[in-house]
Amino acid sequence: MLRALGAVQLDTISVLARSHELVAYARLGSVSRDEIENAYWKRADAFEYWAHAACILPIEMWPYFEYRRRRSRERYSTNGYRAAAKEALVRLRAEGPLTATELGGAKRGGIWWDWSDTKSALEIMLAEGEVVCVERRGWRRVYDLAERAIPGEFLNQTPDDLACWAHLVGLAGKRLGVATRADLGDYFRLRAIDWPAALEGSGLVEVEVEGWRDRAWAHPDALGWLEEGIRGRHRTALLSPFDSLVWDRDRTMRVFDFHHRLEAYVPKPKRIHGYFAMPLLAKGKLVGRVDPSRRDGALVANRTTVEPRHVPDMAKALLEAASWVGADSVVVERLDPEDVRPELEARLKSS
Question: Which candidate, 204, 237, 301, 316, has a CA 20 to 30 Å from the CA of 70?
């Protein structure tokens, strides 16, 4: 799954589960959270780095973020944390993977971002590629030496910037199928790159998409599937707001005619759909959303919006999500439209 997506975003918010767990659940079904975490981290074939945001990435993608690591090395060529960095490297070399806390403390004792010298040094070395995050433990990054954690076949590759850009643009195109330049750039947050050269080397094909204002590029596989009439298989599931299917709001609106916005950081009185509204994917379309929480053993749908003909899909998704997180019932609070409540609640109770 991770290789099919190319990147899975991490985030501190945990409602039903952490976002990276929800991404796996949406595609694989009711796999346990422990199994998901072990699949991400315990096989030594993934690492965390800055891609779309902080993301879990397949290990073979290490070489293609070299352009970003080069920029970081230039940016941090002079900094005040070299002594702390040297000490951390000595301990990592001697003791193996450690968290910032284990290395001496992540914070100075102040506000959330008031990092200690050790934590600041580790984050600089992470950006530069001297250390790598190999796991999250209690949501803390676990750091190891890149020379130990990254296989030599990848560690020793140092493609130039253009090779990195072309590869990442091609990967984004493959994951998206068809995309505008803005879509392609957003997937791995590609900024200030040579777009004409990157597109030329990406293997993507320039196309026109009916109804799209901007030019687009398609992956040859997607064009082949279109020509052969092959359609994808789709689960009915609730999606994390950080899922790569919907993390680009403009693209989500253009492709699905669905306005998606994470409102966790919006003042509560101004929220429309709720703190962590999860879009409902059904039959390849986005047909509703739910802002969930847990209360007294129940999954609570604090705010639910659903197209009336997709009430059965919403009921199915809520029941499956409740079972996955160990909830014994589903409680529906605010509902739009309200007149579908009898059908929705009947379906929730009949299963």
Answer: 204
